[in-house]
């Protein structure tokens, strides 16, 4: 039996060293590492004469994430976009690996019981003999400090030798957390994404030859994520199209009003297949006009950078919280329109928050990264919202046919969002909360079918009108 082969993740064959080129002459190591938040750095090497740098992470997962993130966000300094590539594959030095495993070594040295009068320059003077220092921070009210070296090996020397000096014998000297690392759920999700080579965001749609033949017979294009919508009413807006698209997160929606067509690109090809099947079976209507449903040109495999971002919560919807009365829809549009085309701005005055939906997920990723650096957003809460196109349908009843899947029903009942970050009144239940029982709607139910092999059909849905 023939299968489409999954491509290996770059995290497994491109190593742990990321190359950065085209770096402006006045850029410092600290400037660069201020943009690294994906995992502990083993060492960073700057080559000013060649305007480049090499960042070696402890593991390939962190390297792959930073590489993708830098490309997606177009890492720049002083208006100059950096070149991003891969350095030569290499192994972590055995002495460093042993220290990491046994002592949780990092390139950050923690210093405790510091005297009140100590300054940054004092720490630099005492510790620079162990190697070049990248960053120094003293927390006066706690009498502690942190000294980041360019490499873990230099920090190992400092931790081993500094306590032997009389001046430091009464101080605490150990390892602190590398400021380039981040933990929590986001890191775990990212690691799972990169390590699981069957993750849908990075790999082709994996079907057997027999299964693919069945799908093609039913007008399905395995692996294609772009759906064509035709016969669109001339008064239709992009917002109205998104209002009837359900069943999966969107990467991009492209509406061409003068041709009365649109192209909707999903993140997951499974979602695209299910949406086409359900739409053709039940019909998709906007302004009392039934749309034509088909396939657009396949966009290929989802870019890994977007896949990684999605695995850590990214969507085309930007949430802004802690808003005061000075923020209205016009101001939000003005602030965010430079990052891409906006599909919808939804303000919730009673909750002091708003949602800005872009037509492209890349625009949302760029926007979140950029606005966090602006003064007017410092006191606001900016994060990803939930793409409403990823909600299940309001109601779908499915029955078994000789070649199709089993009966599954999603009732037309709206429930509060299960999001722990915020609540939107227009959010439908998550797929896992759908009830698998037939519920009449105004005395009627609808019957559609899904192709076999699409897994939990509750995840996919038909837009309502």
UniProtKB/TrEMBL annotation:
It holds the Pfam family RRM_1. Residues 16-89, 107-162, 225-298, 316-387 form the RRM domain. GO terms for biological process: mRNA splicing, via spliceosome; negative regulation of conjugation with cellular fusion; negative regulation of transcription by RNA polymerase II. Residues 413-450 are annotated as: Disordered. It comes from the Eukaryota. GO terms for molecular function: mRNA binding; poly(U) RNA binding. GO terms for cellular component: cytoplasmic stress granule. Keywords: Repeat, RNA-binding. Transmembrane segments: none annotated. Residues 430-448 have a biased composition (Polar residues). This is Negative regulator of differentiation 1. The lineage of its organism: Eukaryota, Fungi, Dikarya, Ascomycota, Taphrinomycotina.
């Amino acid at each position: 039996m023939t299968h489409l082969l999954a491509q290996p993740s770059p995290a497994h064959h491109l190593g742990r060293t990321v190359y950065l080129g085209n770096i402006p002459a006045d850029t410092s190591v600290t400037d660069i590492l201020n943009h690294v938040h994906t995992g502990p750095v083993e060492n960073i090497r700057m080559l000013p004469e060649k305007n480049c740098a090499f960042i070696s992470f402890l593991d390939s997962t962190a390297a792959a994430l930073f590489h993708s993130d830098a490309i997606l966000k177009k890492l720049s300094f002083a208006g100059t976009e950096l070149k991003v590539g891969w350095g030569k594959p290499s192994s972590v030095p055995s002495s460093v690996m042993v220290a990491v495993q046994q002592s949780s070594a990092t390139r950050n040295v923690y210093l405790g019981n510091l005297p009140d009068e100590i300054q940054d320059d004092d720490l630099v003077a005492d510790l620079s003999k162990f190697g070049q220092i990248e960053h120094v921070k003293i927390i006066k009210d706690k009498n502690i400090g942190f000294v980041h070296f360019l490499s873990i090996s230099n920090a190992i020397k400092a931790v081993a030798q500094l306590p032997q000096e009389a001046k430091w014998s009464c101080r605490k000297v150990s390892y602190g957390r590398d400021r380039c690392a981040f933990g929590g759920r986001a890191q775990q999700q990212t690691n799972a994404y990169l390590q699981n080579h069957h993750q849908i965001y990075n790999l082709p749609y994996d079907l057997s030859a027999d299964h693919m033949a069945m799908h093609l017979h039913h007008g399905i294009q395995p692996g294609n994520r772009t759906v064509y919508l035709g016969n669109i009413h001339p008064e239709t807006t992009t917002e109205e199209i998104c209002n009837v698209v359900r069943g999966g997160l969107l990467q991009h929606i492209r509406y061409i009003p003068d041709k009365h067509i649109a192209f909707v690109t999903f993140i997951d090809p499974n979602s695209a297949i299910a949406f086409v099947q359900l739409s053709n079976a039940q019909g998709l209507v906007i302004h009392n006009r039934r749309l034509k449903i088909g396939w657009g040109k396949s966009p290929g495999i989802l870019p890994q950078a977007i896949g990684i971002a999605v695995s850590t919560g990214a969507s085309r919807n930007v949430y802004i919280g802690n808003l005061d009365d000075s923020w209205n829809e016009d101001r939000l549009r003005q602030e965010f329109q430079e990052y891409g085309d906006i599909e919808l701005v939804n303000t919730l005055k009673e909750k002091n928050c708003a949602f800005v939906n872009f037509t492209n997920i890349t625009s949302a990723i760029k926007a979140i990264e950029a606005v966090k650096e602006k003064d007017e957003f410092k006191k606001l809460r900016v994060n990803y919202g939930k793409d409403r196109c990823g909600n299940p349908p309001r109601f779908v009843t499915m029955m078994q046919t000789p070649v199709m899947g089993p009966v599954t029903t999603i009732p037309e009942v709206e429930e509060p969002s299960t999001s722990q970050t915020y609540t939107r009144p227009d959010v439908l239940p998550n797929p896992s909360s759908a009830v698998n029982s037939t519920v009449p709607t105004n005395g009627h139910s609808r019957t559609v079918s899904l192709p076999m092999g699409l897994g939990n059909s509750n995840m996919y849905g038909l837009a309502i009108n």
